[in-house]
Amino acid sequence: MSRRKISCERLISASPATIFDVLADPSQHAAIDGSKSVQGHVGQQARLSLGSTFAMKMRIGVPYHIKNRVLEFEENRLIAWGHFGGHIWRYELTQIAEKTLVTETFDWSTSRLPILIQIFRYPRRHTKNMQTTLLRLAGLVEPAPE
Length: 146
Description:
This protein is an alpha+beta fold and 146 residues long.
């Protein structure tokens, strides 16, 4: 099943807690989304925790809303969510000296329709999107150059 997972990583000059605060705040997701499909959040959104749900405004061709559930959660280390399609977006944080290695994974090993993921070439497209997401995340949390 590992062939149904792709990951990208980036070393970011910020603490795991600072980065995790952005990932656990759905109102920040549109700001970091490298695919440009996340348009914003729906309603009031509390800080995420294991089992919590959150709704996002999306646009892939047409606008729609999607409800996600947090499936994995370890404060300042791991957060993952998925929706009815069964695929998962996961962020793992590892502190390395004064920086944090952030690994983003798109996991469709549990997808309800993995063949559609392949047909629409999401694995290849998501690699670039994840690289952009991690770049945008770094831009939000790294200190400004002096």
